[in-house]
Amino acid sequence: MSKFTNAAATAHTLSLTAMEEASRYGQRTAEIDHMFLALVVNEQLAGQVLRSLGITLDSARDAVTAQHAAQLESLGISTTMPEPGEIVFHQTAGYQWGEGPLVVIKKANESGARGDAAAALRELVVEPSGMIEAILHRLNTTPQQVISTLDKAEQYRSATRSAQKSRQNLAGVSEGFAPAAVEQVWALLADPLRMPDWEPSISAVTIDDEETAVTGSTWQAHARTQRLDGKPIKIKPSLIQQRVELLQKSEPHTLEWRFTYPDAPSANARRIRVELEPAAGGTHLRLSLTWERNPQRTRLPLIAWVMRPLARALVWLQLSQLSSAISRNFR
């Protein structure tokens, strides 16, 4: 990815996760503490560094809650902090960044900064209110230690994977993180009936009661025609029914599926592959998405060339949604 693309992708991912965290308390404005929680579960180097310091999502949430309670107590306000609920960001609306996070994002994108999650973390741990520093102390670390660990880790920075170039197919690869053990993530992904919980375009799966999902198994899926907030999704009737084939199942590390459209035989097929790897605080996800060009479709090289940048952006967005949905099941 270019610097601009990577910065835009980071801002999108952090915004989504931070606002999801805010929604657990019925808040519509994501503040610096929500940004910190988003960084803890971020798949980039920033999240890896925080988790290497022993910071988990649960411990970070506890530290944030304790710091808010301490701040209220310092003002002479004694109250019980409200219990968080489930993430309802996708069923509600009206979310925005607070002033503090916007300043952090701006500084992370200023001249010389990359605009990635690491740049955001560097700015966040030294934000002037001192809240994040206090939260880090509750997590037995300091801004200096976070920055020092980040400095060392960035010496071994790996290249960011993005959409892959292919004359025949459009494909992309992305990384993700789920705050749960590999076995828990595997249990989610390996159960066909739970596919709607993590595949945003699927609303239901039909499978025989006694059928076991093994390599080569197929089942019927129904596309989502309504968003979680109740708004309708425009979709061609011929694309609502899908046939899902399990291409690979290597427990507990690799799963791959192929999606085709029985009512639209000329439509391109879609292939999703997820690889799981144990990581500090949870599971590292490597996701790939490939759109297989149907050979029966007439190829228009000029139009394909013009539309390819947009198509690659859509592939990245689809991968981002997959990663976020998988992670959200454990948050």
TrEMBL record:
UniProt xrefs under InterPro entries: Clp_N_dom_sf, Clp_R_N, Polyketide_cyclase/dehydratase, START-like_dom_sf
CDD domains: SRPBCC (cd07812)
A Pfam family: Polyketide_cyc2
Highest taxon listed in the record's lineage: Bacteria
Chain ranges of the Clp R domain: 17-70
SUPFAM superfamilies: Bet v1-like, Double Clp-N motif
Name of this chain's protein: SRPBCC family protein
Source organism of the structure: Populibacterium corticicola
